[in-house]
Amino acid sequence: MPRDPLIGLVGKPSAGKSSTLNSLTDATSKVGNFPFTTIDPQRAIGYLQIDCACARYGLSDRCKPNYGSCVNGRRSVPIELLDVAGLVPGAHQGKGLGNKFLDDLRHADALIHVVDVSGTTDAEGKNTRGYDPSVDIAWLRSEIVAWIRGNLMEKWGSIRRRHIAIKGNPVDTLQGQFSGYGSTAAVVARTLDKLALKEPLEDWSNETIDRVVNAFTDEKFPTVIALNKIDHPDADKNIAKIAKMQDPNKIVLCSAVSEIFLRKMAKQGYIRYTEGSEFVDTRDDLIADGDPDGGGLKEMDEKNKNRIENLKDMVLYRFGSTGVVHVLSKAAEVLGLVPVFPVRNTTTFASGANDSRAVFRDCVLVKKNSTVADVGRKLMGDAPIAYIEGVGGTRVAEDHIVGVGKDDILSFKIGRG
Prior knowledge:
It comes from Podospora appendiculata. InterPro entries: Beta-grasp_dom_sf, G_OBG, GTP-bd, P-loop_NTPase, YGR210-like_G4. This is P-loop containing nucleoside triphosphate hydrolase protein. GO terms for molecular function: ATP hydrolysis activity; GTP binding. By secondary structure, the chain is an alpha/beta fold. It has 14 helices and 14 strands. Strands 1, 2, 3, 4, 5, 6, 7 and 8 form an eight-stranded mixed β-sheet that branches. It has a four-stranded mixed β-sheet with strand order 12-11-14-13, covered by helices on one side. Helix 9 links the parallel strand 7 and strand 8. The longest helix is centred in the middle third of the chain and has 21 residues.
């Protein structure tokens, strides 16, 4: 299955980006038969949790994904992550690993900005106390905007003259400059539509160009803000400040270190824990609930018992979870991702594999406003498609927009080229 879109993780040194990446990719109970989690040192596979189509049809007991897993209708779908390194102030001027940072960034469809909300690391990731993490959010965006604006203004005179000479349209002219950021004409068109500019491109002022670059940045690099280290005593005041400054729908509170610790303890048989849950059961908890064997869990030492109890109080009960699972879900939300289930048979939902009873073996994530034809190209490449079937064998038009529960179960019938 194709693995795009690509979600980039950014964050200054010591913000917890590596811990967050590890907690997103170490889906210990979710990997199923997916053969790997690491692609190369900078790319990895995370697992996005979605509602599977099997639950819609009461077939959860027969759902056996080729990749990821499905438990009681809750499916973990592989999604590719990119570790974007080298974020420091002045990156657009080449400071730190600035050039590499920006070059990696251009490949991402959305960003997760991991922010140390404890305020215990400064702008360069060095230990301190009382640092204002809202500053990090502002300068990440300003670095991207300055990078794009600087590249555009460097050639603006030539761009403008060519635009006039060929009587170009703004979308084509800007896409010629923005394609290097992984943009498409559709992204540029949406950017300009939102601004509803009246003046022609050749008359744009510096202020208008600034507006265009800012709007393009928002459209091309939608960003989720992952406020990490929420269990630190100084985190609350910083969370409150940032919540007033940023769109709350793009903020996720998380503790990546807590998630990694809980999964490790569960894997070693000391606790029962499902990633994303607010509940942790220890041997003592289960004995108190009437299970004399404590669920077969191992006895913990006092240090780990105390750590688990503190983690429950400071993270799970206060915030509802460690937040890590919600980070990817929020990134998928800002991208408007739609899960589509390609099947061989749209009546039985089987894929024609050896285990004919298994349903919904595959799932692919597509971007919002994708048509049935877009899904076909993503799955089949240039293979000629004779026709497309939806649920129950009904024919589906190629220009239909896919959505959750709407033309999201499809069978592509190959024709002759």
